[in-house]
Specification:
The chain is an alpha/beta fold. The protein has 16 helices and 13 strands. The structure holds flavin mononucleotide.
Length: about 400
């Protein structure tokens, strides 16, 4: 470590709205797969308690569907009274370890293979073919009306209100990766001609309405983070210029921090992850034979290896840093204490970690004790297909070594 290291700063307490964080580390959302039949249980609670016990300040419960129709597939949880006791136990476990817990508020929009419950078809900014549901009996998606949007914003608010009752400390509104709000923000998926389509300011209108609705539900003291794309990763998708504007609008809309990611799970998943393609594992765990066939035929184009490099979103994230004052959470390829030092010197406020914390839930503690700590995570991405296994998302490299 150089004498100008700012690594120690990452271990200082931080504040987001009314919440004190014991340090600057966030366990980012990595869908845990521990909600069979949509029901969270002791395994999900243990997963997050382990992260908190390892020193991370804020752990994020991935993909909390804001309604039954917000789910991308059947085994995903949606937030309702029935899941609150289990989520309260989860939050209590995290708090007992000195950590805080955030819920990722998510909605699939027109990207779903779950049979709609209250509507005829999944709804997003624009109608058409629902590629993800095409071979699972949900072939079409519809376009939301302003009334659908108002109802959906109320679902986000209601989910946050319920999660507050379960003891959740913060919320991350998912505006990236091709889910509902990202579908509105991306020019590739939003073809509307009304006030919600066209310019980036128009495309941000509904995400900002959701932010306001959640803020009204939880009040000013509860941190609201927004996870956005720095770019969609293909021609015709969201550009980093537009992402900068998106961050400025969120800042003006009163968000407490922005988490920066990229890619659409439907089109550019490897832009999001980098590293080795998980396609063979995804085919092996796919239960629908038609989907397996389709993945064999076309999967290679979507899931091609893309070289991993540490801090792979740094250059784009620096552009956002130069344009806003709101706290920024860096995400993407943090694998060592040296990376964290770099981010502190860059002036990022928070550090999000996904896969390296799957390998080692005590990574934050390890980095505090050893400024040369380097994660053994190989970015094989075998944790991705593990999401669909009964034991859920976990590091397969670590498991093989155990
Ligand atoms: C197994 C797995 C599941 C993921 N699930 C989610 C999710 O539910 N929501 C989300 O926003 N991002 C999800 N991600 C993306 C991560 O939040 C993060 O963007 C990505 O892993 C890059 O960060 P890393 O290099 O620190 O792992 C997932 C990533 C992995 C590996």
């Amino acid at each position: 470590m150089s004498s100008s290291s700012l690594l120690a700063k990452a271990f200082e307490p931080g504040r987001l709205a009314g919440l004190t964080l014991r340090n600057r580390f966030i366990k980012t959302a990595t869908f845990e797969g521990r909600t069979p039949g949509g029901q969270p249980g002791a395994e999900l609670a243990r997963f997050h308690r382990d992260v908190a016990a390892g020193g991370t300040a804020l752990t994020t419960v991935a993909y909390c569907g804001v309604s039954a129709d917000a789910r991308t597939f059947d085994d995903q949880m949606h937030i309702h009274e029935g899941v609150l006791p289990a989520l309260k136990a989860l939050a209590d476990g995290v708090h007992a370890e000195g950590g805080a817990v955030s819920g990722q508020l998510a909605h699939c929009g027109g990207f779903s293979r779950a049979k709609p419950v209250k509507q005829r078809r999944p709804l997003g900014p624009s109608g058409g073919i629902n590629e993800y549901g095409l071979l699972s009996g949900v072939p079409f998606k519809g376009a939301m009306t302003p009334a659908d949007m108002a109802r959906t914003a109320a679902d986000y608010a209601n989910a946050a209100r319920l999660l507050r009752r379960a003891g959740f400390d913060a919320f991350e509104i998912h505006m990236g990766h091709g889910y509902l709000l990202s579908q509105f923000i991306s020019p590739a998926t939003n073809r509307r001609r009304d006030d919600y389509g066209g310019s980036i300011d128009n495309r941000m209108r509904f995400p900002l309405q959701v932010l306001s609705a959640v803020r009204e539900a939880v009040g000013p003291g509860v941190p609201l983070l927004a996870k956005i794309n720095l770019a969609d990763g293909f021609d015709g998708g969201l550009t980093t210029d537009e992402a900068v504007r998106c961050a400025q609008l969120l800042e003006a809309g009163g968000v407490d921090a922005i988490v920066m990611s990229g890619g659409l799970v439907s089109r550019t998943p490897m832009y999001l992850f980098r590293g080795t393609s998980p396609l063979p594992g995804l085919i092996a765990t796919e239960k629908n034979p038609l989907m397996r066939l389709a993945m064999r035929a076309t999967g290679k184009a979507t899931f091609a290896d893309l070289p991993f490099e540490p801090l792979y979103f740094r250059e784009q994230a620096l552009r956002v840093r130069d344009a806003v004052r709101v706290p920024l959470a860096y995400l993407g390829g943090v694998t060592s204490a040296g990376d964290v030092d770099r981010l502190m010197r860059d002036g990022f406020d928070l550090v999000c970690i996904g896969r390296a914390l799957l390998y080692e839930p005590r990574m934050v503690e390890r980095m505090r004790d050893d400024p040369d700590y380097r994660s053994p995570c190989t970015h094989c991405n075998e944790c991705v297909p593990a999401m669909a296994e009964p034991r859920g998302t976990r590091c397969m490299v670590r498991e093989a070594a155990a």
